[in-house]
């Protein structure tokens, strides 16, 4: 994108148009559910909303850049940075859903370990965002900047480590036969989404460790077929799986909760206690 080009949408631009439409619809759904089901409890919906916003902004910037005969470096830099950091809230959404589903399955000692792992993941992902932004700015100034490449690579490594922990925890909890049906459903949904998320991470790794910012893995100038297959479609699938899982969980919890409240069963008491523990943990993390 360093050379002037004829204004007009390329394959990347048309893909961006589709992304704006898809993620706008997904954002409306996520925001409605955030409001309806309480922002703290449904942390998955909160992070999915943030992810949708990032993708809408990145796609809009792609369209603006391609429609401009002389796009500014600032717009190009912003698109690349937002595209890269959008991967982080997708991880956080999966972590939030996993947190909600596993509280009552752990003994006190294991619960502390689990909480520490979650906090480490959130810290790693937060640092990854910062490093990704700084690295992107450095590379925008100088495409050969060693500092920029290093920071971008460390950012991707941190995301990969967080993913490895997320996958390990998901597979670990699937072994619990005592999980409530709604909890197992949620963990299974997260686990199903992980292989697609892994492909998306591999795409970021390939770009971060390429020798040039103009590599075929670039979201703006790379091979659009690779971009579509390893980035766009993978994110669509992860979003669809997590959203569907969230809806199934809410429908199950609402129907089961009404029936159990009328009977005064231990199930509802456990469910309420589960939510209180999640809220308490989230409050502690926010301080």
From TrEMBL:
Protein name, per record: DUF7702 domain-containing protein
Keyword ATP-binding found: no
A Pfam family matched in the record: DUF7702
Alphabetized InterPro entries for the sequence: DUF7702 (IPR056119)
Transmembrane segments: 12-32, 44-64, 76-99, 120-140, 152-174, 186-210, 226-249
Keyword field contains Chloroplast: no
Annotated keywords: Membrane, Transmembrane, Transmembrane helix
Domain DUF7702: 9-251
